[in-house]
Amino acid sequence: MHLPSRRAGVRLTLLYGALLVASGAVLLALTYLLVLRFPADRVLVDGAGADAGTDVSGGRSGGGLPGVRPTAGSGDVFALLQEQAVRQHADQLRQLLMQSGVALAVMLVVSAVLGRLVARRVLRPLRAMTGTVRHISAHTLHERLAVAGPADELKELADTVDGLLGRLEGALDSHRRFVADAANALRAPLTQERRLLRETLVDRDATAETFRANSERLLEISERQAHLLESLLALAGSHRGLVHREELDLAPLTESALHVARPDSERLGLKVAAAVGPAPVTGDPALVQRLASCLVDNAVGHNRPGGRVEISTAVRGGHAVLSVANTGDRVAPEQVNRLFEPFRSPGRTAADGHPGLGLAIVHAIALAHDAVISVRARPDGGLAVEVAFPARTGDPREGAEDIGQLDKRTGLH
Prior knowledge:
Blueprint: H1 8-37, E1 42-45, E2 54-57, H2 74-135, H3 153-202, H4 208-239, E3 246-249, H5 250-268, E4 271-276, E5 280-283, H6 285-301, E6 308-316, E7 319-326, H7 358-368, E8 372-377, E9 383-390, H8 396-410
Parallel strand pairs: 4-6
Antiparallel strand pairs: 1-2, 3-5, 6-7, 7-9, 8-9
Helix pairs in contact: 1-2, 3-4, 4-7, 5-6, 6-7
């Protein structure tokens, strides 16, 4: 049966009305059955020498009636009384049935009215919440439903919506900050390019060497812009989640990242201690490679000349763990979590090719792979970052032994 309307108020009205009508019908049916079960041949007589109101039934034996003196023709009188009682009982049943039908029809109307009133009262808080939510827009996400009352299902629903609005407000604010920071990061190299081009055009005494130097600087700025755009694309891609998964190992990906960062580490005179062991996981190879590269680049780029970088991969406690630690400037413990926000790396800007997206990319890729990140500021400066992926294979005990040996060698943990 298809209802003529899909509105919740109509459905609740029909539901409540049907329940009331069904309850009334059951009550009337029970009353009718009780009356029907009452003996139809039971009569009351007032015989001589008998107490008034003596119950007489034709079903008794012919030995006589208690308290009644038999007289001539008394059996015919009792039979007539019993027959009259049966007819009266049948007539009463017909009247009861007709009146029950009328009462049921009245009950139907009353049930519809009461069902409508109850449905409107039940849906009133929902209408209020719906109106408030419709009023809330991107500019008024700070508003909340703030429903007061007992801790029932409606209050729980309102609190859930308020929590969702709070998360949306936080996400929108984060998105706005990210867009503003990205715009500033992209504007800085564009400003430098425009200034170099203007200087080259205005300088009438420019030589071939001048043009070559400016071209090299423009090329360097262009490479920084390309690196920034790649970082932004990687960050956006990791936030969308995983599209492709395959079996891979953290060890070769980390070794590749170390190989790429070797020129910078040698230029700064850094001591790199690597203990790379098998660490199989399941994920996107490109994103995991990007995560390892960002961690290594962060450890090298945020280091001091002659400092140290220590990297390890192993299986521990059922997780494939990638650990990267470095020396460098001291970071306040309360500032550690801010490092994973875009453009929040201290001492780095887009102008030097490090806009501060590395740890933000690491955080997004780790979330996409259900990995857990733990980071702490080292007392003597620098950070120790550990990313624990759900392991694909491997013996956790062997991984624990490998990590224990690494801890003794590096002294990081």
